[in-house]
């Protein structure tokens, strides 16, 4: 797995207070991890902080899976 995936997984584990077992690129934030709107906000905020980048609200709405987050971060970080 990519370094970005491991870092994204670490943010998810911290924000959601879960162990990382079972988190894959296909894991969905809402359906699989039961993230509510506040969790989603804190996840996006955590990704922004971890990767020193900003994610617009419009882009954030398109990030629904772990893989979406990894691909977005890889494509947009400097």
UniProtKB/TrEMBL annotation:
It comes from Anaerolinea thermophila (strain DSM 14523 / JCM 11388 / NBRC 100420 / UNI-1). SUPFAM superfamilies: ACP-like. GO terms for cellular component: cytosol; membrane. Pathway: Lipid metabolism; fatty acid biosynthesis. 4'-phosphopantetheine is transferred from CoA to a specific serine of apo-ACP by AcpS. This modification is essential for activity because fatty acids are bound in thioester linkage to the sulfhydryl of the prosthetic group. This is Acyl carrier protein. Carrier of the growing fatty acid chain in fatty acid biosynthesis. The gene is acpP. The keyword Phosphoprotein applies. GO terms for biological process: lipid A biosynthetic process. Belongs to the acyl carrier protein (ACP) family. It comes from the Bacteria. The modification O-(pantetheine 4'-phosphoryl)serine is found at residue 37.
């Amino acid at each position: 797995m990519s370094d970005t995936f491991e870092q994204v997984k670490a943010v998810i584990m911290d924000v959601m207070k879960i162990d990382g077992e079972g988190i894959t690129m296909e894991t969905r934030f809402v359906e699989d991890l039961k993230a509510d709107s506040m969790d989603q906000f804190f996840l996006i905020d955590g990704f922004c902080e971890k990767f020193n980048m900003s994610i617009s609200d419009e882009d954030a709405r398109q990030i629904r899976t772990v893989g979406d987050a990894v691909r977005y971060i890889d494509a947009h970080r400097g």
